[in-house]
Structures are given as C-alpha cells and as structure tokens.
Amino acid sequence: MVSNPPKGMQRITPYLLYEDLGAAIEWVTAAFGLSERSRMSGPDGKPQHVEMTLEDGVIMMGQPQRGYESPRRHGHVCQLVYAYVEDVDAHWRQAEGRGARILTPPEDKPFGDRVYSAEDPEGHHWFFAQHLRDPSM
Q1: pTM, two decimal places
Q2: Counting beta carbons within 10 angstroms of the beta carbon of residue 79, is it exposed (0 to 12), middle (13 to 18) or buried (19 or more)?
Q3: How does pLDDT run across 124-136, given as a tens digit for each residue?
Q4: Domains in the chain, CATH or no CATH each
C-alpha cells in the first residue's frame, strides 16, 4: 500500500536544526522570503518545530534534540538546501541586504540554472536558483 503525503506536503522535505529557532524563523523570513505555515511551541512558549514555505516548497525547522546538532555546534556543514526562485538576482540582493553571508554570487551554470549560495546565521548553506534553459548536450 502506497502512503501519500498530506495534501500540500512534499514527499521529501528537508529538516534543518537551529539552536535559536525563534531567531532563525525571523531571519529566513526576512533574508530569504520564506513564510511560516505552522508552528508547534514547547511548554515555555518558544517554538520547537515550524514548517516554512517558499512558493510551493516546504522546509521544516526545529530545535536540536536527542543527540542532533546544528552546524553552529560542530563547525562544519553536513547538508545544503537547493531552492528555485522566480528571480534569483532579486532574491540575492534581498538576502545580501538582510545580512546573509553570500558564499557565491549569482552565476550561470552549465546545467542551465543561475545560482547563488548563502550561509544562514547557524551555518546552514542555502543555494537559490532560477532555471534559465535546458542544458546543451
């Protein structure tokens, strides 16, 4: 039996961990233009889990628990997020203007995407792309 994800949910969804989840929610909203879809808070009222959207994409974010860590804790990146946006140059200017650490500026890639990369305050790497053309073969 095949189980389908809930309506509006992707089949595969990245989940990033943030030690200061509240600050991360505010930051990715301002710098990367994500929107909050749902939130679960702990007994102290602080967010423990959030679902964020960018266009039709969903990313989950949460507090590290049970042996998990954010890149801030161990100092190296172990995953990245690759997201498509409508206008990668405008997105890059917004992210840079909001203090994102730009790792690579927008550039056209041989596989047909224009891409830039940035690091968020806890060390996660994000790649934002705009598909320009199908690659030449």
Answers
A1: 0.83
A2: exposed
A3: 999 999 999 887 6
A4: 15-131 (3.10.180.10)
